[in-house]
Design a protein that fits this description.
8 strands, 9 helices, eight-stranded antiparallel sheet, 227 residues, globular, alpha+beta
Length: 227
């Protein structure tokens, strides 16, 4: 993970996209009937797109080649728009990814490539070093596996303090695989490294995403927050 960051930030390589990003849509037939979702392939033919709803909120799931330097295999993306303040920015990510981002960005900064970090680095990577992170005591049971930062700390604590925290703990994934859950400009996005395109591999992440949507709508921003 760390070496992949360094190659990307130094401009010598693009993110690894893996091979065989084609999904067999027939394997999703049972899931599409049960979950009432619409499944199709992207226009370029690589990957899969799934549209569904969580209550009245539409969401879109996409799987295919990575769009982020920190996802070194095939990337699963789930997105939805939320009635949240556009200035609210928050991120939850797994510990190995947090540590790799901080180390890589610090090394690149002191080596004099600040301009590249400012213009080309994804916003969520900058947030890891820009915003104050919740302390381990605040994270509680999440502290060993996850880190979290936000422009509004009290909102972040509320978001994680309900059913989202246990849902994140129940998510089983490889420790070295990237996982990011973020809120930005009124949208929520989940990104994860998922090499297999199947209902079995997608459903745990979608379950976490839907819980995160519900908890985000019930959390409130305190007037003392700087969001």
């Amino acid at each position: 993970m760390l070496e992949g960051f360094k190659r990307w930030l130094s401009g010598r390589a693009q993110p690894e996209t893996g091979s065989g990003a084609t999904a067999e849509l027939g394997s999703f037939t049972d899931w599409s009937r049960r979950a009432q979702v619409q499944i199709r392939t992207p226009r370029e033919g690589n990957g899969v797109i799934i549209d569904g709803k969580s209550g009245e909120l539409p969401w879109r799931l996409e799987w295919g080649p990575s769009q982020r330097p920190y996802v070194l295999g095939q990337e699963l993306r789930i997105r939805a728009a939320l009635p949240l303040p556009p200035e609210l920015q928050a991120i939850v990510l797994n510990r190995p990814l947090q540590e790799a981002i901080e180390k890589t960005m610090f090394e690149q900064y002191v080596e004099g490539v600040q301009t590249r970090l400012d213009t080309d680095t994804p916003a969520e990577m900058r947030w890891v070093v820009m915003y104050p992170k919740l302390g381990r005591a605040e994270l509680g049971a999440l502290q060993e596996r996850y880190a979290a930062a936000a422009s509004a700390a009290s909102w972040l604590r509320q978001w994680l303090g309900g059913t989202l925290g246990p849902a994140l703990l129940a998510l089983r994934s490889e420790a070295s695989s990237a996982f990011v859950l973020m809120v930005n400009r009124g949208k929520m996005t989940l990104r994860a490294e998922v090499d297999e395109a199947s209902a079995l591999s997608f459903e745990p992440y979608l379950r976490v995403f839907e819980i995160a949507l519900r908890e985000a709508r019930s959390a409130r921003i305190d007037t003392d927050d700087e969001a």
